[in-house]
Amino acid sequence: MNNPRDVANEVIRCIRAGDIEGIVALFSAVNRRKFGPDINASRPKLMKVLDKTLRKIGDVIEVGELREAPSFDGPGGVVAYLREEGDEVFVVTLQKEGDDYVFDDINSPSVASYQSLKLIE
Fold it and tell me: Whole-angstrom Cα distance, residue 24 to residue 56?
């Protein structure tokens, strides 16, 4: 998918639904290598990851604003706003692979770090 908002919203849907196949299809190449080629063998580990990320996204069902990811995430990366808690902003981090955006992680930069990123929309 080449629309970062659509990818981030699909990530949220997959996490909420416990859709392992769906989330794996959105993974970056790095995440695919981390979990290996056999989804069934990695299913318990992937379910733990989905459970952990479900707690991070809270009750969010759709992302908010989009910002350019920090340069250390690679060129073309995007962060999609989920929610704020204390001095943390929870975001879906997407990387650019070719023409597509792929799921990297759910991160929580500080409010100041997040606000320093360039707004896309």
Answer: 18
